[in-house]
Description:
Elements: H1 6-19, E1 24-31, E2 34-44, E3 55-64
Antiparallel strand pairs: 1-2, 2-3
Amino acid sequence: VTDLDVRAAREVASQWVGASGLDVRSDLSVDEAGVEVALRGTTATIFLGLIGIDRLPVAAEARAEPQRGPP
């Protein structure tokens, strides 16, 4: 049986977001059941800038859960 180390999982997820270099707001949720990461920000456009749209909102969410099985 695999138990999630909540403190270590929070630290690793936080380090990854910080090291990613992404200019985003992040929300982390960590408990014994898993880790959820939500990122929100904006990205510059190229072709849409021709019609006055320079930035678009972007968002991503992911969840990871420990896998249980035989030792």
